[in-house]
Amino acid sequence: MKQKALKIWNPGMECMDREQMRDLQSARLRETVRRVYDNVPMYRARMDEKGVKPEDIRTVDDLRYLPFTDKPDLREYFPFGLLAVPKDRIVRIQGSSGTTGMPIVAGYTAKDVETWTEMVARGVTAAGGGPEDVVQVCYGYGLFTGGLGLHQGATKVGAMVVPMSSGNTKRQIAMMKSLGVTMFGCTPSYAMHIGETIRDMGMDLKDFRLKSAVLGAEPWSENIRTRIEELLDIDALDIYGLTEIAGPGVATECLFKNGMHVNEDNVIVEIVNPETLEPLPYGEKGELVFSTITKEGMPLLRYRTHDLSRLNPEKCECGRTNVRMERIMGRTDDMLIIRGVNVFPSQIETVLTNIEGCEPHFMLTVERTGTTDSMEIQVEVNDRIFGDTVGHLEQFRRRIREEMKSALGLSAEIKLVEAKSLPRFEGKARRVVDNRKL
Ligand code: ADP
Ligand code: ZN
């Protein structure tokens, strides 16, 4: 931890006794269920179908009787079919970046924007931010929630906000330096790119005042965290969210870097078995499911994220009592099934970041010839390795192939490429090309 300031934005909500929090959640859940039953035809029909009446839902434990919501529902009722308020009360539309197909949108009332802002303000504070900070927003602005989300939250804590949006890396860096930027936010892959660019330009970190970054919108690993922290001499913290629920700030990490605190006064989080959809106890790995309990515009019950994680209800060293979710271990719809084996791109990254000489940049291509799948992984290696003799290079390649095989349970063709030759990403990274016609 680079900093010691351990401020908490809203101790009342972030450090509440867990029993009390449960009561608050139960009360808000009852109110939400009643409201969606009365105002959203889809929910009324689904609850009727299951034979559940709003008055059957008394506490958080009764969540299991409620229907799930999933992304296709948002497409089916696009754009306004799931609103629980008249359209003229909506003051903002945000949309999904469309990582997984057709875009979806969510409508926010003025209060929803305020709640979202509060959640991000908590995260910025947890990352050490306050009025004395200069926060550069390098997430994209627009329908994507990253840019405006961090903008609003950082403004709320009183920081000086630099709304750069993503892209134009050299200009980002020049601005960081001349304005004395102390914090920034973007995807972890873009943070790595910013760090590498500063290093490659031969600039001295002493000329910067950077102390922390709030990074999210895509999965990353502990190894990547270490790398970003070393490149930029900062605390790199995780921030999680999705458009459907609020945007970034649904859960945010504190400086102890041991999972993201979920804003439980606004959402109820569950972990379910992604196949049976049975709720799982704390500590077990499964799919994150969120129910909003303060949202007016588009409240969602049991929204399936397809993101895999684990929950930890222990009180954190920072003093917050809100349940923590472990960093996202993958997304069920990111999972590739290759020759019957489940492969997550994050496994490939982990293998590579553990091999000295490999850069954490890769590109996976999956092909199908006849009925057989094959995969090729292009791997960036550093200049020292790349400049080595052909014999050594071949040895190195074989080693990666072996380690990949033991980690994935599947063999892949490995192709070594020069450092900096694979694409870099300003937003969410796209490292998989699946050419199979499934
Ligand atoms: P989409 O990517 O589906 O177009 P969003 O832009 O709303 O839509 O992104 C939400 C998704 O981004 C989450 O469901 C999750 O998969 C991913 N995500 C967001 N924050 C993080 C994070 N900190 N770690 C890992 N994944 C994240
Ligand atoms: Zn904490």
Explain the overall architecture.
The chain is of the alpha/beta class and 438 residues long. It has two domains: 331 residues, Rossmann fold (3-Layer(aba) Sandwich); 99 residues, ANL, C-terminal domain (GMP Synthetase, Chain A, domain 3). Helices cover 32% and strands 24% of the residues. It is built from twelve helices and 20 strands. The chain has a nine-stranded mixed β-sheet with strand order 4-3-5-6-7-8-9-14-13, sandwiched between helices. A hairpin with a 2-residue loop joins strand 15 and strand 16. Helix 10 crosses helix 12. Adenosine-5'-diphosphate binds next to strand 7 and strand 12.
Properties at a glance:
single chain, 438 residues, alpha/beta, Rossmann fold, GMP Synthetase, Chain A, domain 3, 2 domains, 20 strands, binds zinc ion
- Report the uncertain regions: none
Q: At the first level of CATH, what is the class of the largest domain? A: Alpha Beta
Which small-molecule ligands are present, each listed once? adenosine-5'-diphosphate, zinc ion
Q: Based on the coordinates given, report the CATH architecture of the largest domain.
A: 3-Layer(aba) Sandwich
Describe the strand arrangement of the main beta sheet, using strand numbers. 4-3-5-6-7-8-9-14-13
Oligomer: single chain
Query: Radius of gyration in whole Å, from Cα?
Result: 22 Å
Strands, count: 20
Tally the structural domains.
2
Q: Which geometry do the CA atoms define?
A: globular
* Structural class by secondary-structure content: alpha/beta
